[in-house]
């Protein structure tokens, strides 16, 4: 199974407009971060987790020619507002998008034009939202997927276990810690949001992300959803070998 990081940044992206901090002015390409999203490929099937505002640019950069389905973690703009860019991937038949009830309602209210019967002959996206039950493992196109509810500030969103990959962006805490840790235990790869060094009410900071990785005994961990407080090279110098900052277009075998 191949994992590609389409974006590893926060809601602002990196560099942040108007900002002149060292990371925003960095010449290290690994400090240039689109909004957080990943692509997972296995046996000819392709899934994407989240479509942020730069999804078109991410798709061009990664040469994404086909998408079988999308998983959504939540409906905040930086993870969701590229949904219109899915139009080129679903001309002939509706594309399933899997999510929780809040995301389904957001699609119906904010992007109702993506929901219609028959093939899309007018260039509109043609999507079919499917609500996933929390904690219930499903097999979708050969991927074993378990949605795990987590806290994002006051909101409940989804982390996903996808085979031996765990993707937990925008996490600030676990709703049912013992149950969550059991479902997420011992992944080959953990991708977890690590916003900054300082604590934040809606996101794990670096220290909390490390603690979470240790708690579920992740074999290898990659940070995503990093703000401009975090320099890629400084993190590489500081972190243990089994925990690394991801960067846009990093590709791994899981």
How would you describe this structure to a colleague?
This protein is α/β, with parallel strands linked by helices and 254 residues long. It has one domain (2-253): Ribonuclease Z/Hydroxyacylglutathione hydrolase-like (Metallo-beta-lactamase, Chain A). The protein is built from six helices and 15 strands. It has helices spanning 55-62, 77-80, 101-110, 177-184, 206-215, 232-238, and strands at residues 2-7, 37-42, 45-49, 69-71, 95-99, 127-131, 138-140, 143-152, 155-162, 165-168, 173-174, 189-193, 220-224, 243-245, 251-253. Strands 7, 8, 9, 10, 11, 12, 13 and 14 form an eight-stranded mixed beta sheet that branches. A seven-stranded mixed beta sheet has the order 6-5-4-3-2-1-15. The longest helix has 10 residues, at 101-110. The protein is globular and about 55 Å long. The N and C termini lie close together (5 Å).
Query: What sequence of helices (H) and strands (E) makes up the elements?
Result: EEEHEHEHEEEEEEHEHEHEE
CATH topology term: Metallo-beta-lactamase, Chain A
CATH superfamily: Ribonuclease Z/Hydroxyacylglutathione hydrolase-like
| Low-confidence regions | none
Question: Main beta sheet: strand number and arrangement?
Answer: 8 strands, mixed
Strand content range: 25-35%
CATH A-level architecture: 4-Layer Sandwich
Q: Shape, please?
A: globular
Q: For the terminal residues, how far apart are their CA atoms?
A: 5 Å
Average pLDDT score = 96
Output the structural class.
alpha/beta
**Top CATH class:** Alpha Beta
- Count of alpha and pi helical runs: 6
- Number of structural units classed as domains: 1
- How many β-strands, per DSSP? 15
């Amino acid at each position: 199974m191949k994992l590609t990081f389409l974006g590893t940044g926060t809601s602002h992206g990196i560099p942040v407009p108007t900002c002149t901090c060292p990371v925003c002015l960095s010449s290290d390409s690994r400090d240039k971060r689109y909004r957080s999203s990943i692509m997972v490929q296995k046996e000819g099937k392709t899934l994407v987790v989240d479509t942020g505002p730069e999804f078109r640019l991410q798709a061009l950069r990664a040469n994404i020619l086909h998408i079988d389905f999308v998983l959504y973690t939540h409906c905040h703009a930086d993870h969701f507002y590229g949904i219109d860019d899915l139009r080129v991937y679903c001309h002939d038949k509706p594309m399933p998008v899997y999510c929780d009830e809040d995301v389904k309602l957001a699609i119906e209210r904010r992007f109702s034009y993506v929901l219609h019967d028959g093939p899309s002959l007018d260039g509109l996206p043609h999507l079919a939202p499917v609500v996933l039950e929390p904690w219930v493992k499903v097999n979708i196109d050969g991927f074993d997927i378990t949605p795990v509810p987590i806290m994002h500030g006051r909101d409940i969103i989804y982390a996903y276990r996808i085979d031996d990959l765990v993707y937990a962006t925008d996490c600030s805490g676990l709703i049912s810690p013992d149950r969550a840790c059991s479902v997420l235990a011992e992944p080959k790869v953990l991708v977890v949001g690590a916003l900054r060094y300082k604590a934040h009410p809606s996101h794990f900071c670096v220290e909390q992300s490390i603690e979470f990785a240790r708690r579920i005994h992740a074999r290898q961990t990659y940070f995503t959803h990093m703000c401009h407080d975090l320099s890629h090279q400084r993190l590489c110098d500081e972190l243990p070998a089994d925990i690394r900052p991801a960067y846009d277009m990093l590709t791994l075998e899981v």
